[in-house]
Design brief:
115 residues; 3-stranded antiparallel β-sheet; 50% strand
Length: 115
């Protein structure tokens, strides 16, 4: 799946002790995913961020030769969104109630009659 990152909404993260100071971070607009020919939102899928590890430089309190000293730091930034299937909680609850009914029937059938 190709995603045009220039079309994703983003926020700008700012940290004066980091290089780069400004980093765009993508975020998902929808709870579900846009599906089908007309692009309707489907709640059978969940829109979730995609993260990318990135190296930045973090300014330390140290100073050398009148300049700041930086160390490498690894952060993850959201760069896009993808769709993952939503868990079928309703189907699980229906199945579990059916299973309970089947167990009750089996137990009642195996009970000795008191005649």
């Amino acid at each position: 799946i190709l995603i045009n990152l220039s079309l994703l909404p983003s926020r700008i993260s700012y940290d004066p002790t980091r290089y780069p100071k400004y980093i765009p971070e993508a975020y998902c607009l929808c709870k579900g995913c846009l599906m089908g020919i007309l692009g309707e939102e489907s709640l059978h899928f969940r829109s979730t961020p995609v993260y990318m590890p990135t190296v930045i430089l973090r300014r330390t309190p140290a100073c050398a030769g009148g300049r700041y000293v930086y160390t490498e730091d690894y952060i993850t930034i959201p760069v896009g969104c993808t769709c993952i299937p939503e868990q079928e909680k309703e189907a699980e609850s229906v199945n579990s109630s059916i299973d309970k009914q089947e167990v009750k029937l089996l137990v009642s059938q195996n009970k000795p009659s008191s005649e």
